[in-house]
Design a protein that fits this description.
TIM Barrel; seven-stranded parallel beta sheet; two-stranded parallel ribbon; 16% strand; globular
Length: 365
């Protein structure tokens, strides 16, 4: 089973942005030196959640030059916010820079505040996402002599006469990674022999104390669909190798009690950041077109912790992950910088990296 680091820190003020970027570089450098398989980043705008996530492709390109052995992934690109031409161009460039070690998570987005900043209504996001992905497929396939491609999709407009440059890195362009919440998304991943994100919840409720039940259901559906398309064993193995289950917050200490004590410090700070952001989210959701249906609870609620957190001593974490390994999950994505990236938070994140690599990862390699 692979282990990857999810950079998911928050900046609470403009003057914190620069230091956060430098600290994330150091954290990624540490993860690379310790032997993690990949660095993943989100795609977010306006609210201080990962300021570099306003263009994670740039940040990934910088890190790829420093750490060419790593894979790089996105968890996830909000497809409605990206013009399909720029979406395909960025992926192709980064696919070259990583020499094919690129995993592009795709979804329709989760935050109305971000949608309205790009002229997208939240209720239309799913349809715009599907149309953008279809346009991206056309753009990847287009040869110079083919007829022009007309783009007419919500705020995204244009005509492409020649082709996308640069071309894809390999014979097949970079792998996308749909979130397997809907059968259509799981089928898209399965048809193309792509990995998928396997969620631990079922909307509109995005929390609970039975994450493995959700993961098992979504993973089983995805794996069954993967078998329907006649892929060879190598393609299926490659897809499952990177099929990913995500923890927003991973924290490990030498004892369970210490891990829980430190986790609560992390989550209290994280929830303070969420409460600040919620005031702006409420303004974005003022009209029906941008009203979000999801139901959530405080990060300090045991049901949120049960879905989104992995914590404890190394022995406890190994015991927790065994059923996911037995199920066939290929990659555990570990949020190790969750919340505002204070000096204390960074120390706790580095502590987790150290204990993961020395005491947890060897049990799964």
């Amino acid at each position: 089973m692979r282990f990857s680091v999810f950079l998911n820190a928050r900046s609470m003020a403009p003057e914190e942005d620069g230091k956060l970027i430098r600290d994330l570089i150091d954290h990624a450098d540490t993860a690379a030196g310790l032997g993690f398989d990949a660095i993943f980043m989100p795609d977010h705008h306006f609210n201080g959640y990962m300021p570099i996530a306003s263009d994670s492709f740039i940040f990934a390109g910088y890190l790829a030059a420093k750490h060419p052995q790593l894979h790089f992934g996105f968890s996830v690109v909000s497809v409605p916010l990206h013009h399909p031409v720029r979406f395909v161009e960025r992926i192709n460039i980064l696919d070259h820079l990583t020499q094919g070690k690129l995993l592009v998570g795709v979804g329709s987005g989760t935050t109305p505040e971000e949608m309205i900043g790009f002229g997208v209504n939240y209720k239309e996001a799913s349809a715009i996402s599907e149309a953008n992905l279809a346009l991206a497929e056309q753009l990847w396939a287009k040869r110079m002599e083919d007829a022009e491609i007309v783009i007419d999709n919500g705020p995204h407009q244009g005509r492409v006469l020649q082709r996308i440059a640069p071309a894809s890195y390999g014979k097949q362009r970079a792998r996308l990674m749909p979130v397997a919440l809907k059968e259509s998304s799981a089928r898209r991943a399965a048809e193309n022999a792509w990995p998928a994100y396997i969620p631990a919840f079922t909307p509109p409720q995005v929390y609970g104390n039975a994450p493995l039940e959700h993961v098992t259901r979504y993973f089983t559906t995805y794996k069954e669909l993967l078998g329907e398309y006649g892929h060879d064993e190598t393609a299926i193995a490659a897809a499952l190798d990177w099929t990913t289950h995500t923890y927003q917050c991973v924290h490990i200490a030498e004892s369970d009690d210490k891990a829980r004590e430190e986790l609560e410090i992390i989550l209290k700070s994280y929830q303070d950041a969420i409460d600040r952001e919620n005031a702006f989210n409420a303004r974005a959701e003022a009209d029906a077109a941008n009203k979000k249906p999801d139901v959530n609870v405080s990060a300090l609620d045991e049901r949120w912790i049960g879905t989104w957190c992995l914590y404890g001593s190394p022995e406890t974490v190994i015991e927790h992950l065994r059923p996911y390994q037995q199920l066939g999950i290929g990659n555990i994505l570990c949020g190790t910088t969750t919340g505002p990236l204070t000096a204390q938070r960074l120390d706790l994140g580095n502590q987790t990296l150290d204990l993961l690599t020395r005491k947890v990862m060897p049990a799964f390699k």
